[in-house]
Amino acid sequence: MILTPLSPSTSPKPWGEKAGTGRHSDILASGWLDTNVADVTELRVALTVADFDEALAFYRDALGLEQIEDWSTDDGRVVLLDAGRATLELFDQAQAAHVDEIEAGRRVSGKVRLALEVRDSEDKARRLVAAGADEVAPPVTTPWGDRNARVQAPDGMQLTLFTTG
Known about the structure:
- The structure is a single chain.
- With 165 residues, this protein is an alpha+beta fold.
- It has 2 domains: 3-39, no CATH class; 52-163, 2,3-Dihydroxybiphenyl 1,2-Dioxygenase, domain 1.
- Helices cover 25% and strands 24% of the residues.
- It has 5 helices and 8 strands, in the order βααβαββαβαβββ.
- A hairpin with a 5-residue loop joins strand 7 (147-152) and strand 8 (158-163).
């Protein structure tokens, strides 16, 4: 493990002023940060659905995620879909409410919402609605310049489709 001092010039915002307020504040306050980030090599979202065929048709066929594995057996069904590069975006309640207000005009998302970068968010949203999704809100241009559309998949998962500006 390689530890590197965390200097004020490299401190991610808002850590600088908020250090000492969380459960792991002792690590941040110590001024040392583990820079061995290669420990995690993939983020995989495992979604359990009531209607497997409907979900597979929606995510693979309508959304266009490539099926790369099928580990289904007589005991249960599972496929792995490639969603490109994955990131984990953490929101506090206030920011989640703010993004919902921008994208949907009200607080609508649950604890988990998938955000997917697509070539044309408006076109993809129309196609997903035609494939069984519900439009949560029409496409909007965000303050950060992206074009975002919000839909809800047939399984209830909210999706933000975004095209960078």
